[in-house]
């Protein structure tokens, strides 16, 4: 890793933070917002962890009555989230943290949730195992992720373009996140029927 990889990606997200919402504005309006809402509609329990809180794009979907903790490894992204939290009066505890080494005890959260995060985690299976660890038995991990296409031509193009995308944006477009989740010791893993070839809604039960 690692530390070098994480630091490099952190710097890229720090650089993009002030313009991040604008950069994804069109896709957010056309597609991502609807998927985020669907993802968060499944969140349950008294204590929820959002991994990769970013600029606070999911604040609008937080369920009432739950204690919510949001983490991100980019301090500049967290600054944006803190401003939005204050502006919109959102009840969430924010902290800087790397998903690959969470500072939480085992079995801490009823739901652990992340959207478009594991494209930029240097060691995704390590991060997913951390989500499993901090999730309570019987709890759930909810993920919204873009993944490598099953189409052979798209697969080829995504792998070809991936180094350029990582260099400019810090995100991988060729991750096989569903397979990585299935490699963890979750009791059950489901994909939402509404998932597309390249965007997956995943629910994993511990």
UniProtKB/TrEMBL annotation:
Residues 49-142 form the Methyltransferase type domain. Pfam families: Methyltransf_11 (PF08241). Transmembrane segments: none annotated. GO terms for biological process: methylation. Keywords: Methyltransferase, Transferase. GO terms for molecular function: S-adenosylmethionine-dependent methyltransferase activity. It comes from the Bacteria. This is Methyltransferase type 11. It comes from Methylomonas koyamae.
């Amino acid at each position: 890793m690692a530390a070098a990889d994480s630091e490099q990606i952190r710097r890229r997200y720090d650089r993009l933070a002030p313009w991040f919402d604008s950069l994804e504005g069109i896709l957010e309006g056309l597609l991502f917002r609807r998927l985020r809402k669907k993802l968060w509609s499944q969140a349950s329990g008294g204590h929820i962890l959002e991994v990769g809180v970013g600029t606070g794009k999911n604040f609008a979907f937080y369920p009432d009555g739950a204690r919510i903790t949001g983490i991100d490894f980019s301090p500049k992204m967290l600054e944006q989230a803190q401003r939005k939290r204050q502006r919109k009066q959102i009840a969430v505890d924010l902290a800087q943290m790397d998903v690959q080494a969470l500072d939480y005890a085992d079995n801490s959260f009823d739901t652990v949730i992340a959207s478009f995060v594991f494209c930029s985690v240097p060691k995704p299976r390590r991060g997913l195992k951390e989500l499993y660890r901090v999730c309570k038995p019987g709890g759930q991990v909810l993920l919204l992720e873009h993944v490598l296409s099953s189409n052979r031509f798209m697969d080829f193009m995504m792998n070809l373009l991936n180094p350029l995308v990582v260099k400019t944006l810090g995100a991988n477009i060729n991750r096989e996140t569903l397979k990585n989740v299935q490699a963890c010791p979750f009791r059950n893993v489901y994909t939402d029927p509404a998932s597309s070839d390249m965007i997956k809604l995943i629910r994993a039960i511990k």
